[in-house]
UniProtKB/TrEMBL annotation:
Higher taxonomy: Bacteria, Pseudomonadati, Pseudomonadota, Betaproteobacteria, Nitrosomonadales
InterPro entries: P-loop_NTPase, Thymidylate_kin-like_dom, Thymidylate_kinase
Catalytic activity line of the entry: dTMP + ATP = dTDP + ADP
Gene: tmk
Name of this chain's protein: Thymidylate kinase
Annotated organism of origin: Rugosibacter aromaticivorans
Binding site for ATP: 10-17
Amino acid sequence: MRGRFITFEGIDGAGKSTQHAWLAAHLRSLGHEVVATREPGGTPLGEQLRGLLLAEPMHIETEALLMFAARREHIAQVIEPALTRGAWVACDRFADASFAYQSGGRGLAWEKIAALRDWTLGHLQPDITFIFDIPVATAQERLAKINNQRDRFEQEQTAFFERVRAAYHRIATENPQRVTLIDATQSTEEINKLLEKSIARY
């Protein structure tokens, strides 16, 4: 039986990485094999590309292409093999992040990201995507408390993150069967319960 593929999305500071770790642990407690991974990254090559993407200035199209290069390797080396053997894959960011950040945030044409997605992913898409939604000001307050060394994305201005957030809202609207939009201003415990309820049908 093929495994399940769950992705976690949201602007920086929304709390998705915390919930990603919690759900992976919860699924393991239920007896599932879980591969918890992240993007960009997830493979040795992907982690090297992550270092470049988060630190080095580059052309917007170069950024998008490197994101999808890391993603293609991730799919081939980690995600597809895990799903094939029946494991659950919990991924901190996936292709939706490219629409949100490279298209919404940076302004690259949505259609270009869609073309890269179709070429790179083929028929693969998450079974469920959780988008953690939070006002930009609240997210930035959270980041200021926990992170003094911000990468080049986290250093972007408020307007950038407003565009990213709007893109995530568009993704949620256009993909209601796959995407669950979560109010990330709720308590950790409340969000835990929502995630638990959402995966119960699987």
